Amino acid sequence: MPLDVDRERDSSAGRAVDRHILSRFDGDLGHFRAIVLEMGHRVESQVALAGEALAACDVIRARRVIHEHRQVRDLDMEALEANARLYAIHQPVARDLRFVLTLSRAVYDLERIGGEAVRVADIAERLYEYQPSVRECVIFEDVRRIAAPAVSLLGRSIKAIADENVQLAVEVALEGKDLNDLFEGSIRRLATYLMEDPRNIRWVIDATLGFKAMERIGDHACSIARTIIYSVIGKDVRHANTANLAGG
Amino acid sequence: MALTGEEKDMNAETVATAEDVHRKDTGAARYSKALDGDFETVGNVRVAGPRMSCSDVNVYYGDKHAIKDCSLDIGKNQVIAMIGPSGCGKSTFLRCLNRMNDTIDGCRVTGDIRLDDQDIYDKRLDVVPLRAQVGMVFQKPNPFPKSIFDNIAYGPRIHGLASSRAELDGIVEQSLMKAGLWEEVKDRLDQPGTGLSGGQQQRLCIARTIAVEPEVILMDEPCSALDPIATAKVEELIDELHENYTIAIVTHSMQQAARVSQRTAYFHLGNLVEVGDTTQIFTNPQHKLTEDYITGRFG
Fold first, then answer.
1. Binning pLDDT at 50, 70 and 90, where does residue A246 land?
2. Which of A77, A212, B17, B76 shows its CA 20 to 30 Å from the CA of B124?
3. Could you tell me which chain B residue has the CA closest to the CA of A25?
């Protein structure tokens, strides 16, 4: 996933809505939005990297994920400051208020996603110390099945923020269910390794924790998508069931 | 020829409206589209058990059509805020509610406005008691050039609300208490009301309105001449008063409308565009004109 952070920051004021009479408002909101999008892109590449690290038991990539989390934490702090500034100085209302609320909830979800990516990377790093055999490493390859859709959900939920795109957000929210099914399937496959050789238990526990973290990342991405729907249409669908989402 | 205050206000309104019309012509086509033909207010204009009920109100200043078919209920013990750009008709509408527009030459009001089921435009109705029932507080504090005591006592005296000096003293004290001014002025009731600070003067005017036991209090930008602290005190007062009185307030400060009111009505070019619960209007307005105005993207 290419990171074009500078471009995002430059085009930040180009929110697809009419200009505010006060250009400083557009500037401040654009700044907050740019921080969130940058955080989104960073976290997205972190998740992809963490998935690869676990699948390949690759300590180098794992350490990069852990190291880069610092930047996500910095952005998290920058976001709080930008958010506080918007409330204190501009007191946004209506769709502006809903968009600011959505951005600030997205920041929370993105920070958690980064945290989950670090969790996956921690497992990969620990594996390296225990030196599993090639056969044992295969147990972890399954993480790709969950990581790929999780990264895709996350990428599209960030795009839904950038474009304030309800259709895309609904699509992401609906696909969240598929990821949960994939996770269930992976857990069943992990159980077969246990039946094969009970000594696999150490690896299976680690794999379960890693897969679960990936599944949670997908859940956070869906939560971002559902909040975007609230931002655009003004209706809180964060806890609506998926059947209603598809219909409405 | 010297203009009276009302005429000056009226002129200011006409000028602002000309600007609005210009803006409408040159600005986004969506506005003119929204305003063409039959205009329907978004949101529920009716409430259960209203104190005042207005139906199909039209106001003309000569040829100018200032209010177009507005219907709106004002709920009992509720604060309703009226917002909108200059010249949108919100003050004109407010002034219909106690027939203040009668004082303007060439102003014609049609439609039905009721206070507790009494048609206030009934020809037999005496406007003096009506204006005691529906009191008004203006933009600039306007205490009488009399003592603080006499400012409050004036209304009860002419309406014959007190039969003895003791009773009058009681009314003055109660009114000043309710307006949150008693502690500040109790030792200097004989001093001129004009000697108070701006915020105190405005609360004195509110106390004067309360003294004649109104049912409804109309406020036309009551804080626009006050500093933030005095504004906060008046807003706190409005919040306390709405337990016993019905209040309609016109304000240019949207944050103030959001803070003090339970319902908000948005006016635009003489139309009542949208009315709804204040929280709904400020978090999820349904009409694009309302949204553009409150978010600061108007025009």
1. low
2. B76
3. B296
b/e map A172-201, b = 16+ CB within 10 Å: bbebbeebeebbeebbeebeebeeeeeebe
In the structure, how many helices (H) and strands (E) does chain B have?
12, 10
**In the numeric block, which tokens belong to residue B45?**
């204009």
The minimum CA-CA distance between B258 and chain A, rounded to whole Å, is 10
Count of CB pairs separated by less than 8 Å, A with B = 38
Q: Which residues of B touch A25 (CB under 8 A)?
A: 296
ipTM of the complex: 0.78
Say how far apart CA A153 and CA A225 lie, in whole Å.
9
Does B291 contact A95 at a Cβ distance shorter than 8 Å?
yes
The CA distance from B255 to the nearest CA of chain A, in Å, is 8
- Contact between residue A79 and residue A36 where contact means Cβ atoms under 8 Å apart: yes
Q: What pLDDT, in 10s, does the model give residues B215-227?
A: 999 999 999 888 8
DSSP, res B275: E
Amino acid in position A45 = S
Find all residues with CB under 8 Å of B290, minimum gap 6, and list them.
A94, B42, B266, B273, B274, B281
Q: Do B254 and A93 touch (CB under 8 A)?
A: yes
Task: Please report residues of B whose CB lies closer than 8 A to that of A234.
Answer: 283-284
Q: Could you give the dihedral angle defined by the CA atoms of residues A159, A161, A165 and A166, in that order, rounded to the nearest 10 degrees?
A: 120
Measured CA to CA, the distance from residue B253 to residue B110 in angstroms comes to 29
Q: Say which of B255, B295, B298 has its CB closest to residue A94.
A: B295
What whole-number distance in Å separates Cα of residue B59 and Cα of residue B185?
41
Separation of alpha carbons B152 and B131, rounded Å: 15
How far CA A103 is from CA of A37, A75, A157, B217, in Å, comes to 9, 13, 12, 41
The rounded distance, in Å, linking the Cα atoms of A13 and A19 is 9
Residue contact A94–B285, C-beta within 8 A: yes
Q: Does B279 touch chain A (CB under 8 A)?
A: no
Residues in chain A: 248
User: Closest Cα of chain A to B222: distance in Å?
Assistant: 22
Helix A23-55, helix A134-141: angle, nearest 10 = 140
CA B235 to chain centre: 14
Residues of chain B with Cβ-Cβ distance to A98 below 8 Å are: 283-284
Q: How many angstroms separate the CA atoms of A129 and A139, rounded?
A: 17
Using a 10 angstrom Cβ sphere, with 0-12 exposed, 13-18 middle and 19 or more buried, the burial of residue B270 is buried
Q: Which residues of chain B have pLDDT under 50?
A: 1-30, 32-33
Q: Specify burial of residue B140 (Cβ count, 10 A radius: 0-12, 13-18, 19+).
A: middle
- Cα–Cα dist B139/B9, whole Å: 11
- Predicted pLDDT at A2: 41
Residues of A in contact with B285 (CB under 8 A): 94
Please report the pLDDT score of residue B17 as a whole number: 40
Structure tokens at B240: 């306390």
